[in-house]
């Protein structure tokens, strides 16, 4: 009956190694689900933090204009997507493109920019440093009048109105 322990050992090794393999599997399109929304990229938790940005305040995902998919950050999109990114034009800042990772509320770009780095639904704090990267996601003003307005007021609705008269 020496075969029984051998078979048992083989079965244990087979099943335990497949369990470990499932835990470590990384596919080309990793995603998490927040509410009803899939967030693609290399998320490390259920609040949209990723391997690139993971402070307590890194709790938003951004819907990319080019593919209509949410990613935690620009780097996640660049590493996972099979296409170049596109920025949201100012004329579409009324579109919902920001996802709060805490409450799953979708915000328009203008609501996000006017939020003072706080979710208007659950009052969770967003990372104020994200504004340093707006140019990766959103059209930035090209005329001095619009740039001055953005620096002075950060009013996205007014930016959109002004950009219509200067383009």
Structure description:
The protein has 167 residues and is an alpha+beta fold. The chain has helices spanning 3-24, 74-80, 109-113, 134-137, 144-153, 156-166, and strands at 31-34, 37-40, 60-64, 69-71, 96-100, 106-108. The strands form two sheets. A four-stranded antiparallel beta sheet has the order 4-3-5-6. A two-stranded antiparallel sheet has the order 1-2. Helix 5 (144-153) packs antiparallel against helix 6 (156-166). The N and C termini lie far apart (85 Å). Residues 14-29 and 162-167 have low confidence and may be disordered.
Give the rounded overall mean pLDDT: 79
**Can you write the helix and strand succession as a string?**
HEEEEHEEHHHH
**Main sheet: strand order:** 4-3-5-6
Calculate the terminal CA-CA distance, rounded to whole Å. 85 Å
- The value of Rg in angstroms is 22 Å
Please give the largest β-sheet: 4 strands, antiparallel
Q: What ranges have pLDDT less than 50 throughout 5 or more consecutive residues?
A: 14-29, 162-167
Beta percentage is 5-15%
Question: Level of helix content?
Answer: 25-40%
- Global outline: globular
Number of strands: 6
Tally of helical segments: 6
Helix/sheet category: alpha+beta
Summarize the structure.
This protein has 167 residues and is of the alpha+beta class. Helix content is 35%, strand content 14%.
């Amino acid at each position: 009956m020496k075969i029984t322990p051998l078979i048992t050992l083989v079965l244990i090794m087979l099943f335990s190694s497949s369990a470990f393999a499932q835990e470590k599997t990384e596919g080309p399109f990793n995603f998490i689900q927040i509410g009803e929304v899939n967030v693609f990229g290399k998320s490390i938790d259920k609040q949209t933090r990723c391997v690139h940005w993971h402070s307590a305040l890194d709790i938003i995902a951004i819907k990319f204009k080019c593919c209509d998919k949410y990613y935690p950050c620009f780097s996640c999109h660049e590493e996972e997507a099979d296409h170049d990114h596109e920025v949201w034009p100012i004329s579409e800042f009324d579109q919902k493109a920001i996802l709060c990772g805490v409450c799953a509320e979708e915000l328009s770009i203008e609501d996000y920019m006017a939020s003072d780095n706080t979710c208007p639904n659950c009052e969770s704090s967003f990372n104020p440093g994200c504004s340093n990267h707006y140019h990766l996601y959103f059209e930035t003003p090209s005329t001095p009048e619009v740039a001055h307005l953005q620096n002075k007021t950060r009013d996205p609705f007014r930016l959109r109105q002004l950009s219509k008269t200067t383009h």
